[in-house]
Amino acid sequence: MVIKSNFNTIFYFEGRNLIYMKLYQIENVYQSLTKLLTKELSIKTSYKLSKLGKLIIDEYKLFEETRMKIIDKYGDKDEEGNIIQNDNKITIPKENLDSFNKEFNELMDIEVKFDFEPISIDKLGEINISPIDLMVLGDFIVE
Prior knowledge:
- Helix content is 45%, strand content 20%.
- It is of the alpha+beta class.
């Protein structure tokens, strides 16, 4: 069975779900999951969330490495070849802007797949989680 959620395509089969999402979504999932991973949960639920955490963190790290390579390729550099940052902002020279945007948008549009058995919301117990974090993690958590 195939279901389209607000953000992702989910394929369900034999109690598993394959969640396809674009890389532009990975940072929000990473941030929301990081908050959830700090909660005290049962050992079984903690283990399942840790497995999901590893999948998401590994994908996020690869995304960040690739993003930084694009920035390094097109960003303004000092005499030593280091990217110049002003207030944690990087400047892309005008002559590189189109190429930078093209490569960056291609990266953000890459689709990634996660094979993960969803966690029942009941298994999370009485923890507090914001509605926005629950919405972002909604494909990994079921009623």
